[in-house]
Write a structure and sequence with these properties.
Layout (H helix, E strand, L loop, with lengths): L4 H5 L2 E5 L6 H14 L3 E4 L14 E6 L8 H13 L4 E5 L2 H5 L3 H14 L3 E5 L7 H13 L4 E3 L12 H11 L4 E5 L5 H10 L3 E4 L2 H10 L4
Parallel strand pairs: 1-2, 1-8, 2-3, 3-4, 4-5, 5-6, 6-7, 7-8
Helix pairs in contact: 3-5, 5-6, 6-7
Length: 222
């Protein structure tokens, strides 16, 4: 699948979620996002609110990150505070232990709690690399039932790994056309980004946005 550099840029959440990231690095991230014309920046909630002029760039943050092992009330409170501090989008991490225990209704309950507390777009991180195919499908179904806007593969922090084409295909088969699908974790070059889009991803979480986009430009993708 061929996609232009400009079109891919508008699918990117330009991301900085390192635990040692500084305010100066967040400022640099925002400046780079505006230069690259990415869709958004995604930063830690402790960095909110931002003082910089974002221009057309949206502001995203995370919730229950990175383990997902927080109570629904804690996640909802975090999402509500971030929304009040200017976040346009919330990327929440589900508690995958509920899926492993055969309790998908508890995943539904926590997503519903965060959905009610979020004023903007809600993306649900399912940590797909740590799930079976059946669990990926179940997580997507619960996210849709709870009113989420997107399902997202990964935090990028789980030892099982990040986004895979197989996971994106499963997610697309389950909710494609109704929910957005975000591929995140380990996407560091143009070919990988293009493969995720071809499989059904409608948003990409990248910390190496410039390198990915420059790779596309080198291949003549304008």
């Amino acid at each position: 699948m061929d996609i232009s550099r400009q079109a891919l840029a508008r699918m990117i959440d330009h991301t900085l979620l390192r635990t040692d990231a500084t305010p100066a690095e967040v400022s640099a991230l925002i400046a780079e996002a505006k230069e690259l014309n990415t869709y958004s920046v995604c930063i830690s909630p402790s960095m909110l609110p931002v003082a910089e002029d974002l221009g057309d760039v949206k502001l995203a943050t995370v919730c229950g990150f990175p383990s997902g092992n927080h109570t629904p009330q804690t996640k909802a409170s975090e999402a509500a505070e971030s929304s009040k501090l200017g976040a346009d989008e919330i990327d929440m991490v589900i508690n995958i232990s509920h899926l492993k225990a055969g309790r998908p209704e508890r995943v539904l309950e926590e997503i519903e709690a965060v959905r009610a507390a979020t004023s903007g777009v809600l993306k649900v991180i399912i940590e797909s690399a740590a799930l079976t195919d059946e669990e990926v499908v179940e997580a997507c179904r619960q996210a849709e039932a709870a009113g989420a806007d997107y399902v997202k593969t990964s935090t990028g922090f789980h030892p099982a790994g990040g986004a895979t084409v197989r996971a994106i295909e499963l997610m697309h088969e389950t909710v494609g056309g109704r929910l957005g699908i975000k591929a995140s974790g380990g996407i560091r070059d143009w070919a990988s980004a293009q493969a995720m889009v071809a499989a059904g991803a409608t948003r990409l979480g990248l910390s190496s946005s410039r390198a990915v986009l420059d790779g596309g430009q080198a291949e003549g993708a304008y």
